[in-house]
Design goal:
It comes from Musa acuminata subsp. malaccensis (Wild banana). Pfam families: Ank_2 (PF12796). Keywords: Membrane, Transmembrane, Transmembrane helix. This protein has 17 helices and no strands. It has about 350 residues and is mostly helical. The longest helix is centred in the last third of the chain and has 33 residues.
Length: about 350
């Protein structure tokens, strides 16, 4: 193709058209050189298999509903659509196939690879393809939990007699899962312990610093009674959340971190610790606001407009920072629409 393009422009003088054709020919040549044999073979696969590899769950679902028999199509390596979806961890596609199991061939869920002896549960034990990449950084602290949930979902789809099936290497899917996730378990443990220690120190420091600077007397001559009550309530609530968060974080530090603990025990502790930690920070921030108000206005108090302005001055910066940290895509996407 590139030879024909070069012959076409060699007979013509240098014109904008000939220059454009030369550039196009060079681009095509670079693309053809970049194509590896595996990428060329990819386009010989059935469309259903390609869609499963790319995670196009809507496309796969429509094809299977119109033609359930297409689930029996195999790729060049002898894999069906369910095996490919499990290998590439396309959860939506696996759920679609599980919902359609009454109209799909039964052997789809019980097929064993003749070369390796692997069931689809063995394929699910490999974990997330993104985490398996060599250039991937440390996995998320809860990645092992996500992999356990994924493994159990695939396990519920296969016949019970295949749950403990051994492959050609003599390993069950559970043994393979444990072997493949040893390093991930250590990494998740390291991250969770580090997070727990950091948050514990931060909560203890904040509570100690704020308790030493608060007004502790409800005297009308020294402060606004209404603000003092708000200060007292928010500080007590914040202290309660902080103490609960400290206990949960310390329990995370002292946990055993066995593999099955990542299924429910550790994620529950981590979720509750984060929740109480954020609630403690929020209520203590309000308490700090009320305390600063008392120290500034004292006996005279302040008008309603001044109170609102003061609250905004104290709270707006932390709130905006939290929004930018936790919802960056939504915020920047909204601003781009108006630019």
């Amino acid at each position: 193709m590139t030879d024909k393009l070069y012959k076409l422009v060699s007979k013509e003088s240098e014109t904008p058209v000939s220059i454009a054709i030369k550039e196009a020919a060079q681009s095509v040549e670079k693309v053809l050189k970049a194509l590896s044999p595996s990428s060329e073979e990819r386009w010989n696969e059935p469309p259903l298999i390609l869609a499963a590899q790319m995670g196009l769950h809507d496309f796969v679902g429509k094809i299977l509903r119109v033609c359930p028999q297409s689930a029996t199509y195999l790729d060049t390596k002898g894999r069906n659509v369910l095996q490919v979806a499990v290998m590439y961890r396309c959860e939506e596609i696996v759920k679609i196939i599980m919902d359609m199991r009454t109209i799909l061939p039964f052997w789809l869920f019980s097929k064993i690879d003749p070369k390796t002896g692997n069931t689809i549960l063995h394929l699910a034990s490999r974990g997330s393809p993104d985490v398996a990449k060599k250039d991937q950084d440390e996995p998320d602290a809860m990645q092992l939990h996500y992999d356990l949930v994924w493994f159990e979902m695939v396990q519920s789809s296969i016949p019970k007699e295949l749950v403990h099936s051994r492959n050609k290497k003599g390993k069950t899917a559970q043994e393979l899962f444990t072997s493949n996730h040893k390093q991930m378990r250590k990494s998740c443990k390291k991250q969770l312990v580090g997070i727990a220690k950091t948050c514990t120190s931060a909560v203890a420091a904040v509570v100690f610093a704020m308790s030493s600077s608060f007004s502790h007397t409800d005297d009308p001559k020294t402060g606004d009674s209404r603000m003092f009550k708000a200060l007292s309530y928010t500080y007590v609530i914040g202290l309660s959340f902080a103490a609960t968060s400290l206990f949960l974080l310390l329990s995370l530090v002292n946990s055993s971190y066995k593999e099955q603990k990542f299924r429910r025990a550790i994620p529950t502790k981590f979720f509750l610790a984060r929740l109480t930690y954020n609630m403690a920070l929020g209520t203590l921030l309000l308490a700090f606001t009320f305390n600063t108000f008392l120290q500034i206005y004292g006996v005279e108090g302040a008008k309603e407009k001044q109170e609102i302005t003061f609250m905004l001055e104290i709270i707006v910066c932390p709130v905006l920072t939290c929004l930018l940290l936790f919802f960056p895509d939504a915020i920047f996407g909204t601003f781009r629409r108006f630019i």
